[in-house]
Amino acid sequence: MNDMMKELYSIGLIPVIKIENPDDAVPLAKALIDGGLPAAEITFRTKCAAEAIKNITEAYPEMLVGAGTVLTTEQVDAAIAAGSKFLVSPGLNPKVTAYALSKGIPMLPGCSNPSDIEAALELGLTTVKFFPAEAAGGLKMLKAMAAPYGQLTFMPTGGISQDNLLDYLKFNKIVACGGSFMVKDELVKEKKWEEITLLTKNAVKAMLGFEFLHMGINNESEEEALRGAKLFECMFGMEVKVGGKSAFAGGAFEFMKSKGPGKHGHIAIRTNFVDRAMAYFKRMGFEFDESTITYDEKTGKPKFVYFKEEICGFAIHLLQK
User: Fold this and answer.
1) CA 218, CA 296: separation in Å to the nearest integer?
2) How far apart, in whole angstroms, are the C-alpha atoms of residue 153 and residue 146?
3) pTM of the prediction?
């Protein structure tokens, strides 16, 4: 996976936007960034698309901005000149796709059947857009179509919503999803930036799915740990299960038999995607103790990691669901 696809993957959800007024571009970009999605696919369905892209890339050069609905070589040139970092098209036009690739910019043409995919492979592509995703058969169709094509990956777009987003992202052939449900046309036209930020935050929450798992409490000895666990059993009816390093009272409280990470203990938070969660927190300025990362043997992706800093004396770690 090249650097651009890694960046798309780390963000996970790419807002697909139609902008009618170029003056809306920068406040819209800020609304997305504030919501936790520093990315946008600005479609060439309006005359001001290139200007909107330029406005965003100049105001927020760190934002991952691409051009969508790229249908001609002239639009390829305009998108690149405006600062686009990737291009997307609804279908696969061999001429336009080859031209874009010759310019050294990633291109994700729309594919909805095996013939499209084989044309994409002939052009040397390793990632394509699956469009229109839901209308073309959804995840069931995508899984069936992807099976014969090895390491080819996809960015489904079309009918993606907060309700089906996670189903798509859990399929290992998907780099990211494109969606417009958090940036609907009327919200942009009415300049409802705060509502877009809220919808974006909700979409990120749905994607990452953070859940409290348990709290680990440090103790000086096994005796102290067992005493604490049994008190919780006596007081609250929480069943005690004793393991090698700790004793659990119910599923939420882990009494450590010795001093573990954190001054007082640790807190475990589950997430749908540890790697995407790490990228999300790094964008917010948080750091991780890279030495604590453990990887899933099948996927090779991180499944466990501690944050570098403690919070109120507790070490915090992420755990793959």
Assistant:
1) 27
2) 8
3) 0.95
